[in-house]
Specification:
Length: 438
């Protein structure tokens, strides 16, 4: 069974590699020549634990290959996955240019039946636009070739993507025909053998499922951040509140952690796109909008705490632990650290930052902001007036506070992820604040 994955970004590369791991012949296609040449050499464009080894293994087994030509890759293909980017337009809607470009090229080059599956996160109705683009291209060629469309949204968590794909909690597929369903059954059979059932539905419902899932999680995060901010005012502890409400099975304990807001490639973009879809259909999604507004404000909550301690930050040395939007990834898209770095820079601070993976990506994104990037967390603490914990990497969980106290000028610790015990830190001599904790 031959499968083509168009787009070698986070979703496409993980999808193609995991399918190859199950014995499926996969060609990953991308127009970025440098990226493809690097992949052929075993150099991945993204950081994801375990992915490099899996790519190398499947390339060696000749189950996984890479190409810049979609046209050449379509010969004898059974399924084409479109996993290209859908960036936000200025108005928040998803830009479908790359999705429709893929559809057009498929229509211009297929010579036999195949199934075209949208893996990218797209608004409801996109599949029909894909279908029309393919059919228009076929009509221009004067060809009558059967094809089907399907929607198969991804639910991958960065830093845990391989496990999520190989052992999914759900596989959502939207189809229009039994032929398409049969192909998807065959493709996902290695996964369903482990008891992971496919949830079949119509195509619009599958497209909506992805957006609804991410919006729900974003709402939970923003809700807990609001509760945390209120806890600080009334003397409650959000960690206790979380245990109290999380024990209710109707609520559950997942995604009830307070912090400095969500970032990454999915939640910010998808929340905006869903809200825009609502407006286009005369529905204002007020809860979704409120979640986004809270998140935008939450990204600077540590900065505002710091300003309360040091009203004049000019000349202060501020240490940052963590830069990526979450652990186990170098993804800096919409990371809270970007907003904090910009705010600190405007205040005239000396900024010292350490992240185990994301430093190079931060440098690329913030070329106009002066930051001293450090080789280890303790180097960042030298003469620091304050330490801001931004990303909960494992190596930050049990540092040597004795060494930290020897290095820091002022013992100010602002914990943006609530990974430290406030009572313990105060007993050690630190001025400590978390997010909604005592």
């Amino acid at each position: 069974m031959k499968t083509v994955i168009v787009g070698t970004g986070y979703v496409g590369l993980v999808t193609g590699t995991c399918f190859a791991e199950m014995g499926i012949e996969v060609v990953c296609v991308d127009i970025d020549k440098a990226k493809i040449e690097n992949l052929k050499k075993g150099i991945s464009p993204i950081y994801e634990p375990g992915l490099d080894e899996m790519i190398e293994r499947n390339v060696a087994k000749k189950r996984l290959s890479f190409s810049t030509s979609l046209k050449d890759s379509l010969e004898g293909v059974d399924v084409v996955f479109s996993a290209v980017g859908t960036p936000s337009d200025e108005d928040g809607s998803a830009d479908l240019k790359y999705v429709l470009d893929v559809a057009k090229e498929v229509g211009e080059n297929i010579n036999s039946y195949c199934l075209i599956v949208t893996k990218s996160t797209v608004p409801v109705g996109t599949a029909q636009k894909v279908k029309k683009a393919i059919q228009d291209a076929l009509d221009k060629r004067g060809k009558k070739i059967d094809f089907d469309i399907a929607s198969n949204p991804e639910f991958l968590k960065e830093g845990n993507a391989i496990k999520d794909f190989m052992f999914p909690d759900r596989i959502v597929v939207g189809v229009e025909s039994e032929r398409a369903r049969d192909l998807m059954d065959k493709l996902y059979k290695p996964f369903t053998l482990n008891g992971h059932n496919i949830i079949y539905m119509d195509v619009p419902s599958a497209e909506m499922t992805k957006y609804a899932a991410n919006a729900m999680l974003a709402v939970r995060i923003s809700f807990m951040n609001e509760i945390a901010n209120l806890c600080e005012k009334v003397g409650a502890d959000v960690s206790m509140v979380r245990k109290g409400i999380g024990s209710d099975p109707r609520i559950g304990s997942k995604f009830l952690y307070s912090g400095i807001g969500y970032g990454g490639s999915c939640f910010p973009k998808d929340v905006k796109a869903l809200y825009k879809t609502g407006l286009e259909n005369d529905i204002e999604l007020k809860v979704v909008r409120a979640a986004e507004e809270r998140n935008d404000e939450q990204k600077l909550v540590l900065f505002h705490k710091l300003k309360t301690i040091y009203p004049d930050l000019k000349g202060k040395t501020i240490a940052l632990w963590g830069l990526s939007f979450k652990p186990e990834t170098d993804d800096m898209r919409e990371a809270p650290s970007l907003y904090i770095l910009e705010a600190l820079s405007k205040e005239g601070c000396t900024i010292k930052a350490y992240d185990p993976i994301a430093i190079e990506e931060t440098k690329r994104r913030l070329q106009n902001i002066k930051v001293e990037y450090c080789n280890d967390p303790y180097e960042a603490l030298e003469n620091a007036n304050a330490l801001l914990l931004l990303t909960e990497w494992k190596e930050f969980r049990l540092p040597s506070w004795k060494r930290a106290k020897e290095l820091m000028k002022d013992l100010v610790l602002l914990d943006g992820r609530n990974i430290y015990d406030g009572k313990e830190m105060r007993e050690l001599g630190f001025y400590y604040e978390g997010i909604g904790t005592r």
